[in-house]
Design goal:
The chain has 362 residues and is of the alpha/beta class. It is built from 14 helices and 13 strands. The protein has a seven-stranded mixed sheet, with helices on both faces. Helix 4 (68-78) packs parallel to helix 11, helix 7 (145-155) packs parallel to helix 8 (175-184) and helix 12 packs parallel to helix 14. It binds pyridoxal-5'-phosphate.
Length: 362
Protein backbone atom coordinates (compact mmCIF):
# COMPACT_ATOMS: atom_id res chain seq x y z
CA UNK A 1 0.00 0.00 0.00
CA UNK A 2 1.31 3.40 -0.96
CA UNK A 3 1.36 6.17 1.62
CA UNK A 4 0.61 3.93 4.54
CA UNK A 5 0.84 6.84 7.01
CA UNK A 6 -1.95 8.62 5.16
CA UNK A 7 -4.13 5.55 5.34
CA UNK A 8 -3.43 5.08 9.02
CA UNK A 9 -4.38 8.62 9.92
CA UNK A 10 -7.43 8.45 7.69
CA UNK A 11 -8.78 5.31 9.35
CA UNK A 12 -7.90 5.72 13.01
CA UNK A 13 -9.84 7.96 15.36
CA UNK A 14 -8.12 11.34 15.84
CA UNK A 15 -7.93 10.86 19.62
CA UNK A 16 -5.96 7.65 19.05
CA UNK A 17 -3.54 9.42 16.73
CA UNK A 18 -3.04 12.14 19.32
CA UNK A 19 -2.24 9.73 22.17
CA UNK A 20 1.26 8.89 23.34
CA UNK A 21 1.81 5.34 24.51
CA UNK A 22 2.14 4.71 28.25
CA UNK A 23 5.86 5.24 28.85
CA UNK A 24 7.88 2.43 30.41
CA UNK A 25 11.54 3.17 31.13
CA UNK A 26 14.31 0.74 30.18
CA UNK A 27 15.68 -0.57 33.46
CA UNK A 28 18.36 -2.93 32.17
CA UNK A 29 21.24 -3.13 34.64
CA UNK A 30 19.74 -0.54 36.99
CA UNK A 31 18.39 -0.71 40.53
CA UNK A 32 14.71 -0.54 39.73
CA UNK A 33 12.89 1.89 42.00
CA UNK A 34 10.53 3.37 39.42
CA UNK A 35 7.34 1.32 39.29
CA UNK A 36 6.06 0.57 42.82
CA UNK A 37 6.92 -3.09 42.58
CA UNK A 38 7.47 -5.18 45.70
CA UNK A 39 11.24 -5.87 45.68
CA UNK A 40 11.01 -9.07 47.71
CA UNK A 41 11.00 -12.54 46.18
CA UNK A 42 9.60 -15.73 47.74
CA UNK A 43 11.39 -18.15 50.04
CA UNK A 44 12.89 -21.05 48.07
CA UNK A 45 10.53 -23.63 49.59
CA UNK A 46 7.52 -21.53 48.64
CA UNK A 47 8.70 -21.28 45.03
CA UNK A 48 9.07 -25.07 44.92
CA UNK A 49 5.60 -25.55 46.37
CA UNK A 50 4.14 -23.13 43.83
CA UNK A 51 5.79 -24.89 40.90
CA UNK A 52 4.52 -28.21 42.22
CA UNK A 53 1.04 -26.74 42.49
CA UNK A 54 1.21 -25.57 38.87
CA UNK A 55 1.68 -29.17 37.69
CA UNK A 56 -2.08 -29.48 37.87
CA UNK A 57 -2.70 -26.37 35.74
CA UNK A 58 -4.71 -27.31 32.67
CA UNK A 59 -3.41 -24.89 30.12
CA UNK A 60 -5.03 -26.80 27.26
CA UNK A 61 -8.39 -25.67 28.67
CA UNK A 62 -9.91 -22.24 28.87
CA UNK A 63 -9.79 -20.81 32.38
CA UNK A 64 -12.79 -20.75 34.73
CA UNK A 65 -14.67 -17.82 33.15
CA UNK A 66 -15.89 -16.48 36.48
CA UNK A 67 -12.90 -17.58 38.59
CA UNK A 68 -15.21 -18.38 41.49
CA UNK A 69 -12.61 -19.89 43.82
CA UNK A 70 -10.22 -17.00 43.36
CA UNK A 71 -12.97 -14.45 43.84
CA UNK A 72 -14.00 -16.12 47.12
CA UNK A 73 -10.41 -16.04 48.34
CA UNK A 74 -10.12 -12.36 47.40
CA UNK A 75 -13.35 -11.51 49.24
CA UNK A 76 -12.03 -13.05 52.43
CA UNK A 77 -8.54 -11.54 52.13
CA UNK A 78 -9.90 -8.04 51.48
CA UNK A 79 -12.92 -7.80 53.77
CA UNK A 80 -15.38 -7.39 50.92
CA UNK A 81 -18.91 -6.80 52.28
CA UNK A 82 -21.15 -9.80 51.69
CA UNK A 83 -23.78 -7.90 49.75
CA UNK A 84 -21.26 -6.45 47.28
CA UNK A 85 -20.26 -8.14 44.02
CA UNK A 86 -16.69 -8.54 42.79
CA UNK A 87 -15.31 -8.76 39.24
CA UNK A 88 -11.76 -9.44 38.10
CA UNK A 89 -9.61 -7.57 35.62
CA UNK A 90 -6.31 -8.18 33.88
CA UNK A 91 -4.77 -5.61 36.19
CA UNK A 92 -6.89 -2.75 37.49
CA UNK A 93 -6.01 -0.92 34.28
CA UNK A 94 -8.42 -3.24 32.47
CA UNK A 95 -11.12 -2.46 35.02
CA UNK A 96 -10.68 1.28 34.49
CA UNK A 97 -11.15 0.59 30.78
CA UNK A 98 -14.27 -1.50 31.40
CA UNK A 99 -15.87 1.15 33.62
CA UNK A 100 -15.16 3.83 31.04
CA UNK A 101 -16.41 1.72 28.14
CA UNK A 102 -19.66 1.25 30.00
CA UNK A 103 -20.12 4.95 30.64
CA UNK A 104 -19.25 5.98 27.07
CA UNK A 105 -20.88 8.61 24.97
CA UNK A 106 -19.11 11.58 23.48
CA UNK A 107 -20.27 14.11 26.03
CA UNK A 108 -19.28 11.93 28.98
CA UNK A 109 -16.87 13.51 31.40
CA UNK A 110 -14.39 11.61 33.53
CA UNK A 111 -13.13 13.66 36.46
CA UNK A 112 -10.30 13.23 38.94
CA UNK A 113 -8.24 15.42 41.23
CA UNK A 114 -4.79 15.93 39.76
CA UNK A 115 -1.93 15.11 39.71
CA UNK A 116 -3.04 11.49 39.85
CA UNK A 117 -2.64 8.11 38.17
CA UNK A 118 -2.16 8.86 34.46
CA UNK A 119 -4.23 5.94 33.18
CA UNK A 120 -7.54 7.60 34.10
CA UNK A 121 -6.85 10.29 31.54
CA UNK A 122 -5.11 7.99 29.07
CA UNK A 123 -7.98 5.48 28.90
CA UNK A 124 -10.68 8.17 28.92
CA UNK A 125 -9.07 9.92 25.98
CA UNK A 126 -8.47 6.65 24.12
CA UNK A 127 -12.22 5.97 24.32
CA UNK A 128 -13.16 9.44 23.13
CA UNK A 129 -14.34 10.65 26.55
CA UNK A 130 -13.51 14.02 28.03
CA UNK A 131 -11.16 14.09 31.01
CA UNK A 132 -11.34 16.92 33.53
CA UNK A 133 -8.56 17.23 36.11
CA UNK A 134 -9.11 19.36 39.21
CA UNK A 135 -5.91 20.61 40.83
CA UNK A 136 -5.18 19.46 44.36
CA UNK A 137 -4.12 22.04 46.94
CA UNK A 138 -0.50 22.87 46.26
CA UNK A 139 0.50 22.95 49.91
CA UNK A 140 -0.31 19.39 50.98
CA UNK A 141 -1.95 17.70 47.96
CA UNK A 142 -5.29 17.62 49.74
CA UNK A 143 -8.50 17.88 47.72
CA UNK A 144 -9.50 21.45 46.89
CA UNK A 145 -13.14 20.95 47.82
CA UNK A 146 -14.29 24.33 46.53
CA UNK A 147 -12.76 23.67 43.13
CA UNK A 148 -14.14 20.15 43.22
CA UNK A 149 -17.70 21.32 43.92
CA UNK A 150 -17.53 23.84 41.09
CA UNK A 151 -16.12 21.29 38.62
CA UNK A 152 -18.63 18.59 39.54
CA UNK A 153 -21.48 21.03 39.24
CA UNK A 154 -20.24 22.33 35.90
CA UNK A 155 -19.21 19.07 34.21
CA UNK A 156 -21.62 16.55 35.77
CA UNK A 157 -19.02 13.78 35.49
CA UNK A 158 -20.29 10.26 34.85
CA UNK A 159 -17.42 8.97 36.92
CA UNK A 160 -14.93 10.41 39.39
CA UNK A 161 -11.70 8.55 40.14
CA UNK A 162 -10.13 8.95 43.58
CA UNK A 163 -6.82 7.17 44.04
CA UNK A 164 -6.65 6.41 47.76
CA UNK A 165 -3.77 6.80 48.59
CA UNK A 166 -3.00 8.93 45.57
CA UNK A 167 -0.23 8.21 43.07
CA UNK A 168 2.16 10.01 42.59
CA UNK A 169 1.69 12.22 45.66
CA UNK A 170 1.48 9.36 48.21
CA UNK A 171 -1.11 10.92 50.52
CA UNK A 172 -4.56 9.57 51.31
CA UNK A 173 -7.19 12.29 50.90
CA UNK A 174 -9.16 13.29 53.99
CA UNK A 175 -12.00 10.85 54.51
CA UNK A 176 -14.45 13.75 55.02
CA UNK A 177 -13.54 15.13 51.59
CA UNK A 178 -14.02 11.72 49.99
CA UNK A 179 -17.43 11.35 51.61
CA UNK A 180 -18.29 14.89 50.53
CA UNK A 181 -17.49 13.95 46.94
CA UNK A 182 -19.53 10.72 47.19
CA UNK A 183 -22.49 12.80 48.39
CA UNK A 184 -22.43 15.35 45.56
CA UNK A 185 -21.30 13.11 42.70
CA UNK A 186 -24.03 12.79 40.07
CA UNK A 187 -22.52 9.50 38.83
CA UNK A 188 -20.11 6.80 39.88
CA UNK A 189 -17.17 7.29 42.21
CA UNK A 190 -14.34 4.78 41.84
CA UNK A 191 -12.04 4.68 44.84
CA UNK A 192 -8.80 3.16 43.57
CA UNK A 193 -7.09 1.41 46.48
CA UNK A 194 -4.05 0.12 44.61
CA UNK A 195 -1.91 0.93 47.67
CA UNK A 196 -4.29 -0.52 50.28
CA UNK A 197 -1.65 -2.88 51.74
CA UNK A 198 0.50 0.10 52.72
CA UNK A 199 -2.27 2.38 53.99
CA UNK A 200 -4.32 2.52 57.15
CA UNK A 201 -7.55 3.59 55.54
CA UNK A 202 -10.07 2.01 53.17
CA UNK A 203 -13.51 2.73 51.74
CA UNK A 204 -14.45 -0.94 51.48
CA UNK A 205 -16.88 -0.75 54.46
CA UNK A 206 -18.48 2.37 52.94
CA UNK A 207 -19.87 0.30 50.05
CA UNK A 208 -22.96 -0.38 52.18
CA UNK A 209 -23.63 3.30 52.59
CA UNK A 210 -22.99 4.58 49.06
CA UNK A 211 -24.59 2.73 46.13
CA UNK A 212 -22.63 4.94 43.68
CA UNK A 213 -19.27 3.78 45.09
CA UNK A 214 -16.99 1.22 43.47
CA UNK A 215 -13.79 0.14 45.20
CA UNK A 216 -10.93 -1.08 43.02
CA UNK A 217 -7.85 -2.97 44.18
CA UNK A 218 -4.93 -4.79 42.60
CA UNK A 219 -2.38 -7.41 43.59
CA UNK A 220 0.32 -5.54 41.65
CA UNK A 221 1.76 -3.39 44.43
CA UNK A 222 1.41 -6.20 46.97
CA UNK A 223 3.99 -8.26 45.11
CA UNK A 224 2.28 -9.84 42.09
CA UNK A 225 2.73 -7.18 39.42
CA UNK A 226 3.72 -9.86 36.92
CA UNK A 227 0.41 -11.67 37.27
CA UNK A 228 -1.82 -8.76 36.22
CA UNK A 229 -4.78 -9.14 38.55
CA UNK A 230 -7.08 -6.42 39.79
CA UNK A 231 -10.63 -6.45 41.10
CA UNK A 232 -13.60 -4.15 41.30
CA UNK A 233 -16.16 -4.29 44.10
CA UNK A 234 -19.58 -2.69 44.22
CA UNK A 235 -23.33 -3.00 44.19
CA UNK A 236 -24.46 -6.02 42.15
CA UNK A 237 -26.50 -3.72 39.92
CA UNK A 238 -23.28 -2.05 38.70
CA UNK A 239 -21.05 -5.10 38.62
CA UNK A 240 -23.68 -7.21 36.84
CA UNK A 241 -23.78 -4.75 33.95
CA UNK A 242 -20.06 -3.96 33.79
CA UNK A 243 -19.20 -7.66 33.82
CA UNK A 244 -20.80 -7.97 30.39
CA UNK A 245 -18.03 -5.78 28.99
CA UNK A 246 -15.32 -8.04 30.35
CA UNK A 247 -13.83 -10.21 27.61
CA UNK A 248 -14.40 -13.90 28.26
CA UNK A 249 -11.49 -15.64 30.02
CA UNK A 250 -9.68 -12.37 30.79
CA UNK A 251 -7.93 -13.99 33.78
CA UNK A 252 -5.73 -16.79 32.53
CA UNK A 253 -5.24 -20.21 34.09
CA UNK A 254 -1.76 -19.46 35.47
CA UNK A 255 -2.87 -16.18 37.04
CA UNK A 256 -5.91 -17.76 38.68
CA UNK A 257 -3.98 -20.65 40.12
CA UNK A 258 -0.97 -18.57 41.20
CA UNK A 259 -3.09 -15.89 42.84
CA UNK A 260 -5.00 -18.54 44.80
CA UNK A 261 -1.70 -20.05 45.87
CA UNK A 262 -0.32 -16.65 46.90
CA UNK A 263 -3.43 -15.75 48.90
CA UNK A 264 -3.02 -18.99 50.84
CA UNK A 265 0.45 -17.72 51.84
CA UNK A 266 -0.67 -14.29 52.94
CA UNK A 267 1.63 -14.32 55.97
CA UNK A 268 4.62 -14.09 53.61
CA UNK A 269 3.18 -11.00 51.94
CA UNK A 270 2.12 -9.47 55.25
CA UNK A 271 5.72 -9.72 56.45
CA UNK A 272 7.04 -8.14 53.23
CA UNK A 273 4.52 -5.31 53.52
CA UNK A 274 5.68 -4.69 57.10
CA UNK A 275 9.29 -4.36 55.90
CA UNK A 276 8.28 -2.02 53.10
CA UNK A 277 6.27 0.19 55.47
CA UNK A 278 9.17 0.32 57.92
CA UNK A 279 11.67 1.15 55.16
CA UNK A 280 9.36 3.82 53.74
CA UNK A 281 9.62 5.70 57.03
CA UNK A 282 13.37 5.24 57.09
CA UNK A 283 13.68 6.47 53.52
CA UNK A 284 11.52 9.52 54.27
CA UNK A 285 13.66 10.36 57.30
CA UNK A 286 16.89 10.04 55.31
CA UNK A 287 15.46 12.18 52.51
CA UNK A 288 14.36 14.83 55.00
CA UNK A 289 18.02 15.41 55.93
CA UNK A 290 18.70 16.53 52.32
CA UNK A 291 17.67 19.79 50.62
CA UNK A 292 14.36 18.36 49.47
CA UNK A 293 10.71 18.64 50.52
CA UNK A 294 9.45 15.14 51.36
CA UNK A 295 5.74 14.40 50.92
CA UNK A 296 4.19 12.11 53.57
CA UNK A 297 3.28 8.77 52.00
CA UNK A 298 0.85 5.99 52.80
CA UNK A 299 2.00 4.02 49.75
CA UNK A 300 5.12 2.02 48.87
CA UNK A 301 6.89 5.04 47.42
CA UNK A 302 8.08 8.44 48.55
CA UNK A 303 7.79 11.55 46.41
CA UNK A 304 9.81 14.67 47.01
CA UNK A 305 10.62 18.07 45.54
CA UNK A 306 14.17 19.26 45.03
CA UNK A 307 14.67 22.64 46.63
CA UNK A 308 18.08 23.64 45.30
CA UNK A 309 18.69 21.36 42.33
CA UNK A 310 17.09 20.58 38.98
CA UNK A 311 14.99 17.39 39.03
CA UNK A 312 15.79 16.39 35.46
CA UNK A 313 19.50 16.67 36.05
CA UNK A 314 19.35 14.81 39.38
CA UNK A 315 17.23 12.08 37.81
CA UNK A 316 19.79 11.61 35.01
CA UNK A 317 22.71 11.57 37.44
CA UNK A 318 20.97 8.95 39.57
CA UNK A 319 20.56 6.84 36.45
CA UNK A 320 24.25 7.23 35.67
CA UNK A 321 24.90 6.07 39.22
CA UNK A 322 22.83 2.95 38.50
CA UNK A 323 19.54 3.90 40.18
CA UNK A 324 16.31 4.26 38.24
CA UNK A 325 13.50 6.27 39.86
CA UNK A 326 10.65 8.28 38.35
CA UNK A 327 10.98 11.80 37.13
CA UNK A 328 7.65 13.52 37.80
CA UNK A 329 8.83 16.94 36.70
CA UNK A 330 7.81 16.70 33.00
CA UNK A 331 4.16 16.52 34.12
CA UNK A 332 4.63 20.09 35.37
CA UNK A 333 2.08 21.89 37.53
CA UNK A 334 2.19 20.74 41.14
CA UNK A 335 4.83 18.14 40.22
CA UNK A 336 7.35 20.66 39.02
CA UNK A 337 10.84 19.61 40.08
CA UNK A 338 9.52 16.47 41.81
CA UNK A 339 10.85 12.91 41.82
CA UNK A 340 9.33 9.64 43.07
CA UNK A 341 11.23 6.70 44.49
CA UNK A 342 9.73 3.27 45.14
CA UNK A 343 10.71 1.58 48.40
CA UNK A 344 13.14 -1.18 47.45
CA UNK A 345 15.28 -3.61 49.41
CA UNK A 346 17.14 -1.96 52.30
CA UNK A 347 20.49 -1.98 50.45
CA UNK A 348 18.84 -0.62 47.28
CA UNK A 349 17.32 2.23 49.28
CA UNK A 350 20.71 2.94 50.80
CA UNK A 351 22.36 2.94 47.36
CA UNK A 352 19.75 5.47 46.28
CA UNK A 353 20.26 7.68 49.34
CA UNK A 354 24.05 7.54 48.99
CA UNK A 355 23.93 8.41 45.29
CA UNK A 356 21.43 11.23 45.85
CA UNK A 357 23.42 12.64 48.76
CA UNK A 358 26.53 12.74 46.63
CA UNK A 359 24.75 14.35 43.68
CA UNK A 360 23.20 17.04 45.84
CA UNK A 361 26.52 17.82 47.53
CA UNK A 362 28.35 18.35 44.27
C1 LIG B 1 -0.20 1.08 39.83
C2 LIG B 1 -1.58 1.62 39.89
C3 LIG B 1 -2.63 0.96 39.26
C4 LIG B 1 -2.39 -0.13 38.27
O1 LIG B 1 -2.62 -1.35 38.74
P1 LIG B 1 -2.55 -2.65 37.83
O2 LIG B 1 -3.45 -3.56 38.57
O3 LIG B 1 -1.13 -3.08 37.81
O4 LIG B 1 -3.08 -2.34 36.46
C5 LIG B 1 -3.92 1.46 39.44
N1 LIG B 1 -4.13 2.57 40.17
C6 LIG B 1 -3.15 3.24 40.76
C7 LIG B 1 -3.44 4.46 41.55
C8 LIG B 1 -1.84 2.80 40.62
O5 LIG B 1 -0.83 3.50 41.16
Amino acid sequence: MKNIEGKVSELLRPEVLALSAYPVQDSTGLIKLDAMENPYTWPRAMVDEWLEDLRSARINRYPDPTADRLRSALRIANGVPEEADLMLGNGSDELIQIVLMGLGGEDSVVLAPQPTFVMYRQIAVSLGLRFVGVDLNGKDFSVDMDAMRVAIDLHQPKVIFLAYPNNPTGNAFASDDMVGILRIAPGLVVVDEAYAPFADATFMPKLREFPNLLVMRTLSKLGLAGLRLGFLVGHPAWIGQLDKLRLPYNINVLTQQTAEFALSKHAVFDAQVECIRRDRERLATQLAALPVEVFPSQANFVSFRLLENDAVEVFERLKQAGVLIKNLSPAGGLLRNCLRVTVGLPDENQRFIDALTEILQR
